[in-house]
Amino acid sequence: MAGYQSTSADLRSQLRQLLIAEQRPKFHRRAQGQVGDVVKPFSSTSRIRKGLSPSEPNTYSANIQELFTHPNFSNLTKQAIMDSLPVTNNAVGEPTSTKEKVLHAGAAMVQNFDPPKQLCAHLHAFHTYASNPGKPVEANHYCAHLNEDVRQCIIYDSPSPNARLIGIEYMIKPHLYETLDQEERKLWHSHVFEVKSGMLFLPTPAGVPNAAWEPAETEEMKEVIHLYGKVYHLWQVDKGHQLPLGEAQLMTSYTSKDQFPDYDGVVGERDRKFGVDSKAKAETRKGIAEPSTHPDADAAWKK
Fold first, then answer.
1. Fewer CB within a 10 Å sphere, N or C end of the chain?
2. pLDDT in tens, 36-84
3. Residues sharing a CB contact under 8 Å with residue 113, sequence separation 6 or more, in sequence order
């Protein structure tokens, strides 16, 4: 590799080739010598052999690390790859190692991620504990449409690459909600106040003008306002937990401003962080028809 000028793209290409070679069905790679050809320029003592049989261990982890740590890969190249990967957040535990970051990056190039690829909407709002409603908890929902009547969302504590997954929410249309028994219906909440107040919104994608995004968001709100949601938080980051502790907590939404402590302060700070104006959104949404809410929903506020 004398004189080889490595780049982030070069390294990613090598990692991809290495992983594809290592993950061929049943590891039958006796012909053509393609695996050895991939690694040979980087190590004459590579543990990847042309004739790896099914009974021999899959050694791609060691070889990716060997590839990445080879002296001919410049520090600049390594830094370029590291800069493209999320850093470990402040959850308890040791920082993610270079080896693990490289393995994750390599695996992401070749594995199938069809379920998360269906995520099509990022909604931001606040939840509160159904057992003790009041305190707001930030919730970044990343949602997919399971079908016309059911949505499923994973919830993170922030929109950052190193965000912690803190919960899940399911949303269903009224005709499905009405088929549930009474005790089950009590676990679900409405979205009427979230929509009409402007608290619930879809962050504007980078490069998209607000003037173009606002009408699309309003159309989405016309759908969401009818939905009932069932949400559980698994990680109480608002309590300072550095790991997901205890039982999952049923959460709910707010149905009026006075239920939300320091509404203007908390939502105002959120608006500044995201560059939005919830009061302006509320004005825009005045024309959205407000549906009636089933009496069994939002039970946390009726205790």
1. C
2. 333 333 333 333 333 333 344 444 445 545 555 555 555 545 455 444 4
3. none
